[in-house]
Every structure is written in C-alpha cells, then in structure tokens.
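Standup notes
- DV: blocked on the single-chain target, sequence here:
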Amino acid sequence: QVQLVESGGGLVQAGGSLRLSCAASGRTSSSYAMGWFRQAPGKEREFVAAISWDIGSTYYADSVKGRFTISRDNAKKTVYLQMNSLNPGDTAVYYCAASRARATAFRIDYDFWGQGTQVTVSS
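- DV (later): unblocked, structure below
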C-alpha cells in the first residue's frame, strides 16, 4: 500500500502563490505517474495536473495552464504543485494521486490518493 500526504495548503491572497507538496510512503516506486486533483464543496473532483514517471512529461488542465507547475523528486518521494497567480476559483481541497499506469486526467486511472489539503484564495 502507498500512502500519500499533502501539505502546503492554506489561505492566500488573490494573485499570490502557494506550493503544495505530496509525500509518499509505503511501497513506493519511481514508476508511478503522479497527478493533482482538486474538489470544491458540492462539486466533482477535477483534474489539475499530472506528471509521468519516465521523463517527467507534464499535462495541465486548461484552467491552470501557465499558472501551475507540477514537478517531482523521486529521491524524496515527493511531488509538488507550484501555484502562481491564484484566484478565488482555485479555492478547493487539493489531492495528490498516484497511478501505476500512466499520467492521465481521469480519476479512474489513479490507484492511490492522499487525504487532501485545503487551499483558500481570498478575494
């Protein structure tokens, strides 16, 4: 079993930046593709970003492209999400996830999930 723990969430002013971290433990592997999803109250969990396990190819939702950057440090078993130019629409619980297959934008492709970290962007 793989455990994922997100951190770095909090309250930030619109236009500000925040860096989320997701630390993995348990039977981790560098072959996991990693992704970030987010969910606001009453809404479905939506894809944010993903990074492949091989050469670190990245993919972003259109809503965050150019503002967010996903990266990973396999030695530290950690994936990051650098969030810049935040706006109130980014307010949500952010979840990291690991896929044993490939980096995709679909929840069903991910095998392990963290418990989430709250990100609140004030107006």
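- Follow-up: The CA atoms of residues 15 and 85 lie 4 Å apart.
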